[in-house]
Amino acid sequence: MSERLPYRLGFISTDACPEINETPGYDWVKSVIVGTFPYQREKARGRYLPARFAYGQDYHLVLAGKLEEIARSFGLSRYEIRVDRNPFDEKKLAWLAGLGFIGRNTLLITPEYGSFVVLGTILTDRIFSASGQPERSGCGECDACLRSCPTGALTGGFDRVKCLSYLTQTASEEFSKYDVLRDAYYGCDICQEACPHNRGKSGCLPEFVFAPDSVMNLDELEKLDKKTFSEKYGNKNFAWIGYLKMLRNIIVLEVNNNNVDNEKIAYFQKKYADVPWFNRHMEYLKKRWKHGPQ
Predict the structure, then answer these.
(1) Alpha-carbon gap, residue 126 to 111, rounded angstroms
(2) 219 a catalytic residue
């Protein structure tokens, strides 16, 4: 079935992952169906852009629909679909199902699509035979991803609070860590771009092809507010971070690329003076600007 479709499915029994049945409320699960769904690998043009997994439609919504179709095609009666918001480690489940290996960049690396995939799972009371065996790491001595990360988030193990993807999604007050942002306002593809396992790979679900509304700039964002931002981008992966984090990210990028002045920064700082973390970050950017972009 899955070989004729633009994604791949894997199967494991809960014997391979005992913690599932040990988790309260999941003693009924007998098997897990895991899907790897590819998104666009080629970088689009425009300023500014999200990471590639957010080029198209919100993958949570897309995968939920596709997994529902898969569950029906198997005639499942009791099942639970999980996409991202999962009590279990999706990457581990995909690895156990033989869909790829976990790279030094902590991502699942598949033979078909490299690491440019999003994952979804179906927990079910149906018993399925295992589809494969866990793969050994294919990284060898390669450390390209570690060397490429501008914040050192992968050195000595993954440090989430240093990861640019994490930083773009949170109200972190480690302001200096944002200084290396250059073009991605949400997420980060740097370690994937450096990975040799992503070379020569292709494949993309139509829903994840780049859409022009993924390009973001300060002029357009200034015309919006919290309500209209949610209305306009409700079908995008990045909508959940909200207007102010997006505004912060774009202003940071503008400062880093020498495209904004202190007067503009001060304008937004005053406009949202009631939001402490935003106010403090704008103050940091104004002080940094006195010395010019780094």
Answers:
(1) 27
(2) no
